[in-house]
Specification:
It contains 8 helices and 2 strands. By secondary structure, the chain is mainly α. Helix 2 crosses helix 3.
């Protein structure tokens, strides 16, 4: 999936293969099988182009990460404790990103609840972010901004 997200457009098996071969030796059939499996699982859609297919991610990298976090959280027998433990693992930058995201999801604060500086920052972020999306989510969609965990 990382390679499909990296291209940020429909890709062929050959394009993904050539991209992967810059780092390691891999067979065409291996890439074709993985992309076919991703298609069967609903992670990518494909469209015929001659005798080949072009594959495109069904969801963004940010949406995928959010779904993983939601799945892990929903499996906890104590969701509040799981969140506290997760927040405890975060760096200060990550906690600030979380506060920013919560502020965007909740909408603008009332003037009594925050000072002018916080209001201006929240309004600026809301103007810059597409509707319903945190700035961090936009950065995650940029393939160069996240390390590749599994090389696919």
């Amino acid at each position: 999936m990382t390679r499909v997200w990296k291209w940020n457009r429909p890709v062929t098996v050959r394009e993904v293969l050539e991209d992967l071969q810059q780092e390691r030796s891999i067979a065409y059939t291996t890439v074709m099988t993985v992309l076919d499996n991703l298609h069967q699982k609903g992670w990518v859609r494909r469209e015929a182009e001659g005798r080949a297919y072009r594959y495109e991610a069904v969801s963004t990298r940010a949406a995928y990460a959010a779904a993983l976090m939601n799945d892990a959280w929903s499996q906890s027998d104590n969701p509040a404790a799981a969140l506290v433990a997760f927040f405890g693992m975060m760096s200060e930058e990550q906690r600030q990103a979380l506060r920013d995201a919560v502020r965007i999801v909740q909408g603008p604060e009332t003037p009594e609840a925050s000072g002018p500086r916080q209001q201006e920052a929240a309004q600026e972020e809301a103007r810059e972010a597409p509707e319903g999306e945190a700035p961090e989510a936009r950065e995650e969609e940029n393939p160069g901004s996240a390390p590749e965990a599994d090389g696919r």
